[in-house]
Amino acid sequence: MSRPGEFELIARYFAPIAGPAGLGLTDDAGLLRPARGYELVVTADALVAGVHFFADDPPASIARKALAVNLSDLAAKGARPDGFVLTLALPKGWTEAWLADFAKGLAAMAEEGACPLVGGDTVSTPGPLTLSITAFGSVPAGRMVLRSGAKPGDLVLVSGTIGDGALGLKVHGPDKPDWVVKLSEAGRSHLADRYLHPRPRLALAAALQAHASAAMDISDGLVGDLAKLLAASGVGAEIDLDTVPLSDAARTAIMAAPALAELAWTGGDDYEILLTTSEGEYPAMVAAAEAAGISLARIGRVTSDSGVARFLEQGRERVFAQGSFAHF
Amino acid sequence: MSRPGEFELIARYFAPIAGPAGLGLTDDAGLLRPARGYELVVTADALVAGVHFFADDPPASIARKALAVNLSDLAAKGARPDGFVLTLALPKGWTEAWLADFAKGLAAMAEEGACPLVGGDTVSTPGPLTLSITAFGSVPAGRMVLRSGAKPGDLVLVSGTIGDGALGLKVHGPDKPDWVVKLSEAGRSHLADRYLHPRPRLALAAALQAHASAAMDISDGLVGDLAKLLAASGVGAEIDLDTVPLSDAARTAIMAAPALAELAWTGGDDYEILLTTSEGEYPAMVAAAEAAGISLARIGRVTSDSGVARFLEQGRERVFAQGSFAHF
């Protein structure tokens, strides 16, 4: 079995994903040309097999998600994607078929996000498959949407539905809990798909830039990520858990096993947007999101009680022991 | 033994290395503001313990080198560093003392290169320590120095001395070859230091931008990297190996074991600059390098014999079986 060398591999699988900025991936570096008056938003995520995904997940899904989680960060900052860099540490025994499928998934997400590959590095590792993606996006100067802009009185909103990713991990993983059998086939597919194939909310970027006071993507769970946003903004919040949007499948799972509600609120892998907006900007924010085909739910309000998040469930306060899912 | 969590770790060790663009590493993304009329050069390298360095190398040296090899790429492209992103996959059993030393080395190189940390990600891995750095630098629009600009008749030059890194790896590694004992203590230190602590030729960037027709850094060996530059430019070259500059220590090693000459010419880890310049620009190129404290040696000439590199040693042609050191 012969495998292509690094240069052949780049030419065959990665050069087609590179835009003009990648110079065909034949030089030592790529080139980014930000438009006049724009700044470049930079974000990076590393993913390790056995930690962030299963080593035997479909290669196309691994690649898609690695890029999607970075695009999700760009979207939350109000940025339009410009390109990304991939470093790939391949474990012993990789096959060309594996790599071809990986490149296919990467190319599909790069095209959906209009985010070409501009460079990278491929090495071998005696350890598990490890990927690192750095993604770039542009925003008009001074307009990156920060975590730190939430003000007392602002409304707290989330996009889409919460908890599907964390529940989907259980559905997709090797040890199926009892409640999984109570879901319909469609429900199981929905949750597993949400875990495996997060869809970055790129269509929301412009609306966030125009109307949000603060935003971040929800990657480590709503409760924990909210705590980070509040800390950065020096504010608190009151959240009505009954208004946190759930998919039909998530609702069915929680009916079957009520303890799952906690997982939905604190588990990772949502890749939805958590944002705050002033009461005045709220109608325009919701309208712009609707025009982009994305639903926003109002789940609470920012308070001046710095760093304190209060959660209400059916009128009673709920306290979370562990706020955030940490991969670290 | 308690270890800090990810957020504490970032605040304690990495936030001090972040410039204003890193936003104190408290947001999801960093921000780069290229000056008007400038473009951004992007380069990335991944390094894996046991592949690119020894797991028990001093942590400060590992960090220094990881950033230095990226800065070396920027320098070769004529770019001034603007910032970098680090993703770090820490193996089981890392200690805070290890990380503190790592951060110290990273901070020192970031300061020397005027290249602040603007973001990143820290994760855990069941495998070996794995780092990935993406570095950014700026060049006036259209002025990135490419691999592809060499023209027949141009002169071929290298900075500094060649082969120290590859010989230094032997000196530094666990199995000391016989010739190592024939070196002086100072000679051994010199070579090991050149392997462990490459010094990116940032001071050469402006001169390359002004006077080089093509350039790249030598990371995978002079012979192999020259082949890449020639291929990108669609030209050939004639190289006089007797004019390839060697350090005193490398010369002593080669006297003791003549076969080492091949290692010096083909081994990796030089992190010197390989460049071409027209006969007309040559005096200005050399003068600008000298003003920057860097010596350049003229080692050959570009020919129109596309893709063919001819090497002469004491008037006779020398053929290299394996051109390039590949980590992959």
UniProtKB/TrEMBL annotation, chains A, B:
<keyword id="KW-0784">Thiamine biosynthesis</keyword>
<keyword id="KW-0547">Nucleotide-binding</keyword>
<keyword id="KW-0479">Metal-binding</keyword>
<dbReference type="InterPro" id="IPR036676">
    <property type="entry name" value="PurM-like_C_sf"/>
</dbReference>
<feature type="domain" description="PurM-like C-terminal">
    <location>
        <begin position="151"/>
        <end position="309"/>
    </location>
</feature>
<keyword id="KW-0067">ATP-binding</keyword>
<feature type="binding site">
    <location>
        <position position="28"/>
    </location>
    <ligand>
        <name>Mg(2+) 3</name>
    </ligand>
</feature>
<feature type="binding site">
    <location>
        <position position="147"/>
    </location>
    <ligand>
        <name>ATP</name>
    </ligand>
</feature>
<feature type="binding site">
    <location>
        <position position="269"/>
    </location>
    <ligand>
        <name>substrate</name>
    </ligand>
</feature>
<feature type="binding site">
    <location>
        <position position="121"/>
    </location>
    <ligand>
        <name>Mg(2+) 1</name>
    </ligand>
</feature>
<keyword id="KW-0460">Magnesium</keyword>
<dbReference type="InterPro" id="IPR036921">
    <property type="entry name" value="PurM-like_N_sf"/>
</dbReference>
<protein>
    <recommendedName>
        <fullName>Thiamine-monophosphate kinase</fullName>
        <ecNumber>2.7.4.16</ecNumber>
    </recommendedName>
</protein>
<comment type="pathway">
    <text>Cofactor biosynthesis; thiamine diphosphate biosynthesis; thiamine diphosphate from thiamine phosphate: step 1/1.</text>
</comment>
<dbReference type="GO" id="GO:0009229">
    <property type="term" value="P:thiamine diphosphate biosynthetic process"/>
</dbReference>
<keyword id="KW-0808">Transferase</keyword>
<feature type="binding site">
    <location>
        <position position="217"/>
    </location>
    <ligand>
        <name>Mg(2+) 3</name>
    </ligand>
</feature>
<dbReference type="InterPro" id="IPR006283">
    <property type="entry name" value="ThiL-like"/>
</dbReference>
<feature type="binding site">
    <location>
        <position position="43"/>
    </location>
    <ligand>
        <name>Mg(2+) 4</name>
    </ligand>
</feature>
<feature type="binding site">
    <location>
        <begin position="120"/>
        <end position="121"/>
    </location>
    <ligand>
        <name>ATP</name>
    </ligand>
</feature>
<dbReference type="GO" id="GO:0009030">
    <property type="term" value="F:thiamine-phosphate kinase activity"/>
</dbReference>
<feature type="binding site">
    <location>
        <position position="28"/>
    </location>
    <ligand>
        <name>Mg(2+) 4</name>
    </ligand>
</feature>
<keyword id="KW-0418">Kinase</keyword>
<feature type="binding site">
    <location>
        <position position="73"/>
    </location>
    <ligand>
        <name>Mg(2+) 3</name>
    </ligand>
</feature>
<dbReference type="Pfam" id="PF02769">
    <property type="entry name" value="AIRS_C"/>
</dbReference>
<dbReference type="GO" id="GO:0009228">
    <property type="term" value="P:thiamine biosynthetic process"/>
</dbReference>
<dbReference type="GO" id="GO:0000287">
    <property type="term" value="F:magnesium ion binding"/>
</dbReference>
<dbReference type="InterPro" id="IPR010918">
    <property type="entry name" value="PurM-like_C_dom"/>
</dbReference>
<feature type="binding site">
    <location>
        <position position="45"/>
    </location>
    <ligand>
        <name>Mg(2+) 2</name>
    </ligand>
</feature>
<comment type="function">
    <text>Catalyzes the ATP-dependent phosphorylation of thiamine-monophosphate (TMP) to form thiamine-pyrophosphate (TPP), the active form of vitamin B1.</text>
</comment>
<feature type="binding site">
    <location>
        <position position="219"/>
    </location>
    <ligand>
        <name>ATP</name>
    </ligand>
</feature>
<dbReference type="GO" id="GO:0005524">
    <property type="term" value="F:ATP binding"/>
</dbReference>
<feature type="binding site">
    <location>
        <position position="220"/>
    </location>
    <ligand>
        <name>Mg(2+) 5</name>
    </ligand>
</feature>
<dbReference type="InterPro" id="IPR016188">
    <property type="entry name" value="PurM-like_N"/>
</dbReference>
<feature type="binding site">
    <location>
        <position position="52"/>
    </location>
    <ligand>
        <name>substrate</name>
    </ligand>
</feature>
<comment type="similarity">
    <text>Belongs to the thiamine-monophosphate kinase family.</text>
</comment>
<feature type="domain" description="PurM-like N-terminal">
    <location>
        <begin position="27"/>
        <end position="139"/>
    </location>
</feature>
<feature type="binding site">
    <location>
        <position position="45"/>
    </location>
    <ligand>
        <name>Mg(2+) 1</name>
    </ligand>
</feature>
<dbReference type="Pfam" id="PF00586">
    <property type="entry name" value="AIRS"/>
</dbReference>
<feature type="binding site">
    <location>
        <position position="73"/>
    </location>
    <ligand>
        <name>Mg(2+) 4</name>
    </ligand>
</feature>
<feature type="binding site">
    <location>
        <position position="73"/>
    </location>
    <ligand>
        <name>Mg(2+) 2</name>
    </ligand>
</feature>
<feature type="binding site">
    <location>
        <position position="325"/>
    </location>
    <ligand>
        <name>substrate</name>
    </ligand>
</feature>
